[in-house]
Structures are given as C-alpha cells and as structure tokens.
Amino acid sequence: MNKKTEQSRIAYNKIASEYDASREGQYTRFHIMELSNTIDLHEGNVVLDVACGNGTLLRELSKKAKIQANGIDISENMICSAKMRYPNMSFEVKPCYPLEWSNESIDIITVCCAFHHFDNPQGFVNECKRVLKKNGTVYIADPNFGAVVRFIANKFWFPFSKSGDVRIYRKKELKEIFYNCGFKTVQVYRKGEGVFLKAEK
C-alpha cells in the first residue's frame, strides 16, 4: 500500500466512530448534500461510492431512487460503521485503484472529499472509464481552495502531512485528467467550499 494511502487508512480509522461530529465530517456534509441534489438517478442504477466513509452519501442517494448501492473504502472502521448503519447496502474494504469490478458494470461512480487523497488519480479515472457502462457518469466533490492556499497546501503542507492528502486540483487539471482518459463530456464548477465535477463516458 502506498505511503499516502496507508496514512489515509490510519487517519480515518481513528475518527470513524465520531466522524459525523468531527470537523471533517461537518465539512464534508456540504459536499454530500450538493452531490445528492445534483446526481441524476434512475430506478435500478448500480452506484459505486469510492472512499464511501460511513455511507452517508449512499443513504442520501437511496432516498431519491431505488438503487443498487455499493461502497468501498480503505478504512476498516469506516466500513464497519457503514455496515452497521445501512445493512441493506453493500460495503467492502477495498482500494480505489484498481477497481475490482468488471467492465461496463456500473452506472454511476461517486467520490466525495477523497479525490485529493488518491495517489494515482489518472489510474483511478482510467478504471472509472473501464467499469462504467455506456453513458455512465462520474461525480466528484473535492475541497475548493483559492490559488494561494492551494499552492501552499500542495507545496508545503501535504508533503509533510500524515493525514494522507496528496494534491488539491485546479478546475483545469481535473478536466484534463478526465479528458485524457477519453471521457466525452466533463463539467466542473465551484460552489461554496467545494469543487464539483461531472464526467460522462
């Protein structure tokens, strides 16, 4: 396991039991609600939430339509919490790369406040392209940092952070990663504390 990935696993295992009340849990709440409000869902959609945490986003999405809800996370404690909360959904301890799903088997992939932890973002997006069905969609929410704060975080903070953070991306960078993998349409916008992406295969 990559060093940053292992740092993320340790960090989230520590806060899993009180995640919702933690500062990070409160911060993530806005991103979860924005995603749940904007994601287009249809009855029977197969949804994969990558770095699903304790399952809150999948719960919100399940309120909108009857979906096949699947979540993966590297934190064993987060997955344990998700399973206890939502026993009718499928949760597994798995990495974001490679995705252990067959070709063209998923309708929607979501990543909420975790993409900046991924040590191989291009590899992950390639995997998204592989496992998504035709016209399948990826939705990502990540922190919205201004240019100066983003530079300081990426250059001086994240390299020494032990919480698993790798990189905060500019809108242009996010678009390039997905276009480089062959996604046909990519939309990115900022809102409040978040940057939100929708990429269609």
From TrEMBL:
GO BP annotations, alphabetical order: methylation
Domain of life assignment: Bacteria
Gene Ontology molecular function, alphabetical: methyltransferase activity
InterPro entries: Diverse_substrate_MTase (IPR051052), Methyltransf_11 (IPR013216), SAM-dependent_MTases_sf (IPR029063)
Pfam families xrefs: Methyltransf_11
Positions of the Methyltransferase type domain: 48-140
Keywords attached to this entry: Methyltransferase, Transferase
Family assignment from sequence similarity: Belongs to the methyltransferase superfamily.
Protein name, as recorded: Class I SAM-dependent methyltransferase
